[in-house]
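Researcher: Please generate the 3D structure of the following complex. Treat every line as part of one assembly.
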Amino acid sequence: MKLSEICGRLSVEYTGDEIEISGLNALSDADKSEVSFLEKPKYASQLSGTRAAAVFITQEMASKLPESTIALIVEEPYITLAKASAFFAPKRLENSGDAPSIGEASVVEPGAYIAAGAQIGQGCHIMPGVFIGNNVRVGDNTVLYPNVTIYRDCEIGNDCIIHAGTVIGSDGFGFATTKTGEHVKIYQNGNVVIEDDVEIGANTTIDRAVFSSTVIKKGARIDNLVQIGHNCVIGEYSVLVSQVGLAGSSRLGRNVVMGGQSATAGHLEIAPFTTIAARGGVTKSVKAPGLYGGFPLMEHKRWLKLQGLLSRLLKK
Amino acid sequence: MKLSEICGRLSVEYTGDEIEISGLNALSDADKSEVSFLEKPKYASQLSGTRAAAVFITQEMASKLPESTIALIVEEPYITLAKASAFFAPKRLENSGDAPSIGEASVVEPGAYIAAGAQIGQGCHIMPGVFIGNNVRVGDNTVLYPNVTIYRDCEIGNDCIIHAGTVIGSDGFGFATTKTGEHVKIYQNGNVVIEDDVEIGANTTIDRAVFSSTVIKKGARIDNLVQIGHNCVIGEYSVLVSQVGLAGSSRLGRNVVMGGQSATAGHLEIAPFTTIAARGGVTKSVKAPGLYGGFPLMEHKRWLKLQGLLSRLLKK
Amino acid sequence: MKLSEICGRLSVEYTGDEIEISGLNALSDADKSEVSFLEKPKYASQLSGTRAAAVFITQEMASKLPESTIALIVEEPYITLAKASAFFAPKRLENSGDAPSIGEASVVEPGAYIAAGAQIGQGCHIMPGVFIGNNVRVGDNTVLYPNVTIYRDCEIGNDCIIHAGTVIGSDGFGFATTKTGEHVKIYQNGNVVIEDDVEIGANTTIDRAVFSSTVIKKGARIDNLVQIGHNCVIGEYSVLVSQVGLAGSSRLGRNVVMGGQSATAGHLEIAPFTTIAARGGVTKSVKAPGLYGGFPLMEHKRWLKLQGLLSRLLKK
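Model: Done. Output below.
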C-alpha cells in the first residue's frame, strides 16, 4: 500500500515521495518498507536508531527522527497506528488460493477443516473439528486433537501434540484507548511459531503477535488452560503448569518452570533454568536462576521465611 | 403453565384460582405472571414490594406477603424453586421452527451449525465449527471464529468479534443443596446479551442468567480464558484481562479495568473508571473509583505500603 | 507384549522367562501382568509389597524387591518407564471395530463424531461438534453440549450434563526429564470415569490417568474453566467453583467445596465436608473438616485474623 494512500485514509498530512509500505512494526524492528510509531516519551531513545520508512509521531518528538525516516505528524500516534493496523489485516479466511497440501501418511479425519494454502507434513493426524487456517504450516508427525483451532499464517513444527480445544494464533489483546475511553482495535498481523517436539494441553490459548511472532521453542511442555499473550517467547524445554498466565512480551529462557497459576506481568525476561513456584507472580525480570515464589515475586526461601514470620506474629 | 399444574407436580398445596404462569423470577423483578421464592430471612424486606403472582415461602414468612401475592407454603423454598425451574427449561435444540435467516453478504463457512429461529445480520462471518442455538440473534458485521458456541436465545450486537472456542450462554452454576448434601439443578432460563463493538478472546466463558440476562455492554474488551458468571453486568468499554473470574451478579460500571487473574466475589458493584490490579480479589463493592489491588482488596498504594512493611519486618 | 520384547526395545538386559505384559502401573497397584518402576528412594518401602511382574530399578535398590518380582536394572528408571509407556499407548483413533451403538431415543446432532466401539445409552443428546472417542461409554439421559471432546476409553454415567468446549480425557501432564533437561513423554494410558448425575461447566479440562482412572464421583458439580489433573478423585456431591486447579492425584472426599480460583498441590487428600475459600491454596492434606483459606492454607478464621493483624500494623 502506498504511504500516500495510508495517510489519505487517516487524514494525515503527507506530500512526499510515493513509497510502497509492506506493514507496521515496532520502532526497533521496522525496516525501510515499514511504518512505526512513538507514543511514550520513554521510548524516544529508540528514534535515532530506527530504520522505519515513516513514523507516526507528535510534533514535539519529530525532530529526533533520523533524516532517512519520514515524520508523520499526528496528535495521537498510538490511536493512529491502531487505525492503520486495519489496512494491513489479511482476510480471516480465503477460499481462493492453492488447495492445502497434505503429506504422505497424514490422516485428516472427517469434520476437520483445512484452509487454502495450508501445508501439512507427513505422518500427521488431524482429528475431527480441527480448524487450520490459510497458509498454516504443520511439520511431520504432529497430532492435533479434536476441536483445536489454528489461526492463519501460524507455524507448527515436527512431533508436536496439541490437545483438544486449544487455540493457537487468536488475536493478542491489543487496542488503543481514546481520551473519551473508547477502544480502537490494533489488528494483530503477526503469527505464532511453535518449534519441534512441543506438547500443549487442552483449552490453552496462545495469541498471535501484533508484529512478528509469538514463539514456543523446541521441547516446551505446556499444560491445560494456560494463557500466553502476544509476542511472548518461551524457551527450549520450558514447562508451564496448568492455569499459568503470561502477559504480552514475556520472554522465558530455556528450562524455565512455571508452577500452577503462576503469572507474569508483561515486557520482562526470566533467566534460563529459573523455577517459579505455584502462584508466583513475576512482576519484574528475573536475572539470576533460582527458585522464586510469592506475589510480588521474591526468592522462595524468603517467601517461606515470611510465612514463618507471619505465623509468629499471629501467636503474639 | 397453570399454577395448579406447577403445584401438583411439586406436591405443593394450592386450591386457588387458575392462573397462567410464564416463568420464575427474583422477588424484586417478578411480574404478575411469574412465581418467585424466599429462602433467606435477610431478603424478607423484599416481600412487601413484590409483584409476583405467587411465592414459594415458609409458613413463618408467609404473612409478610402483600395480599395480591399467593403464598405457596413449603418447607424448603429454594429446593422447591429448583425443582420448578425444570418445568420452564426450553428444549436444548429444536429442529422445528423457522429456518435461520442469514443477512446479505454474511458468510457461513462449512461445518458451522445454525439452529432454527436464529437470525444473523448482514456482513457477518461465521467460521467452521461454530454452533448458534435456537433464536440467537446476531447483529451486522460480527465475526465468530471457529468452534465458538452460542447457546439458544442469546443476543450478540453489531461489529463484535468472538475468538475461537469461546462459549456464550452456558448454564450458570446454580443449584440448591438438600439437607443431606445432594444438589438439585436450577435451570438457567435467562440469556446473555452482548451489545455492539465488543471483542471477546479465546476459550472464554460467559454464563447465561438464571432469570433475565447476563449483559456485556457496548465496547467492552474481554481477553482469553475469562469467566463471567450468571447475571453479571459488564459496563461500557470495560476491560477484562486474561483469566479474570467474575462471580455471579457482579456489576461493573463503565471503563472498569480488571487486571490478569483478578476476581470478584458475587453480588457486588464496582464503580465506573475503577482499576483492579492483576490478582486483585474484590470482596465487597467498590464505591469510589481508583486503583485497587490485593486480596482482600485495598487501595493499591496501601497494598504497596504493606509489601514495604513486610519487607522491613523480614530484615529485622 | 512379551517382557523380552519390551527389554529389547529399551536395550535393558533381560534373560529370564517369556512373560506376557499387559501394561505399566504404580508399584502399589501393579498386578502380576504389569511392569512398574522405582525412582525415588522415599518410595522404597513399597517394594516389598509389590505384586508387579517386573520393576525398572537401579542396581542399589534391586535387592529390596520380593523374589517373585523381576528386577530390570537401569540407570534412570523413570526415563525408562517413560520410554516404555509409548509401547502401550493405544491408537488415538481407530476406524475399524464395532460401529458405535446409540440407545433408544438418543439424538446425535449433525456434525458430532462418534468413534468405533463407543456405546451411548438411551435418551442422550449429543450436540454438534462433539467428539466421542473409541470405546467411550455414556450412560442414559446424558447431555453433551457443542464442541465437547471425550477422549477414547472414558466413561460417563447417567443423567450427566457436560457444557460446551469441555475436554474429558486429555493426556495428564506427565514426562520424565533427562539430565540434560529434555522431556520424555509418559503416555497416559488410563482414563476418566465420571459417575451419575454430574454436571460440568464450559471449557473445563479433566485429564486422563497415567494408569487406572481419574474419577469424578456421583453428584459432583464442576464449574467453568476448572482444571483437574491426572489421577484425581473428586468425592460425591463435591463442588468446584470456576477456575479451580487441582494438581495430579488430589483426592477430595464427599461434599468438599472449593471456592473460585482455589487450588491444590498434588498427591494430597481433603477430608469430606471441607470448604476451601476462594483463592485458597491447599499445600498439604486437610484431615479435619472445616473452613480453610489463604496460601499457604490455614483455618479461615486464622486468615481473617491475619488480615486484621496486617491492617493494624499498617496503621502504626
